[in-house]
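[agent] plan:
  1. take the single chain provided in the ticket
  2. run structure prediction with default settings
  3. attach structure tokens to the ticket
  4. add a short note for the reviewer (M.T.)
[agent] executing step 1
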Amino acid sequence: MAAMPSPLYRIPALESTHLVLSHLSGSKLHRSLLPISAITLIHALRVSYATCQVQGGPRKIGLLQSVVLVWILLFGGWTIINLGLGKQTPLFDPGVQLTAAIYGAVHSVAVLSGLQKRVLKAASGAPATFGLGLDIFFHLVDAVCRTEGIIALGLNPVRDHPSPLTPIITSALIGGGGPLLIGLLDLESANWKLQTPTWLKNPTGLLAVDIWSAGIVALVYDSLTSSSTSPIAMRLFPGAAPTLAAAGSRPLLDINEARLVGSLLLFALLSLNRLRVFITASKPLAAMTANGTPKKGSSSASNGAKGSKNSGSRNSPGTAATAGSGLSTKVLLAAAVALPVSLLLAQWLLAGNDLKDGVLQGWVDEVAEAM
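[agent] step 2 finished; step 3 output follows
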């Protein structure tokens, strides 16, 4: 296999952070009693917490059913992608089976020990800032683990696909398959069933941050690590591909550093969305306090916190639809789209004049052939 060309830039801070994360991911908590890393354990607890959010509270469903819900949130999007690409379902892969067993065991311990119930009670009570802080922490873990999945399972298998939309769609399914399956299988209720998806009845549910943020992360990572100065243009205009390949251009960043950039971007998008929901939920409470309206204990804060968490990393379809219809969500989405466009523009400006002329000539030739 040919060696990857050296990147144009090196960022020491990202390189050091990658070494720390690699150590945390590779170090086992205990060689025999608990042979998993700290990051895996925290992410398993995070997924267990997400199933409780989907159901709206603990013990609404039985233990076995809740374990299956954990597996659906973990592997649902990946299974859909494999079926669409004609590949074997991941359920028969030994590594996937081991991961399913670990996450199922962690979830079972969290439920049976009462840890899940206590955490949810603390997060949904007063002060609401505790629930906000917990979600922000989980978003950090989610961003690291989810970015790995987006790149390895959503982007890389279809990176050379002739359609420029395919990598974005598959990445969105890896990162946001959970909310889509929740609406399709009615996972918020105790009795699951196949139904007309809620996001099909109300398309604003497709604006859930889990879905579009995953596509943005894949696009940014592809732009930073592609050996072409413009991977999107290369796919949209095949006539420019020979010129770009002959130029021997180098990627902007190393794949490990680009992966960290994707994780930081995803963390920022998830956290900003969570802060937006928190501020929106706090406005009615602040107005009631200013008007001297009596409050019933901390019920208003509790309800606001509960509504906020359902709009977090594992959005419920109804909440995602409500949150997605606001102007602030559209502004956030526009800002996220502007970032990869800016990266592509920066790549273009960094390219030499000969390369620019060659690309433009390739586009002209392709348009001429089409006419």
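[agent] step 4 note for reviewer: Residues 294-326, 350-356 have pLDDT under 50 and may be disordered.
[agent] ticket updated
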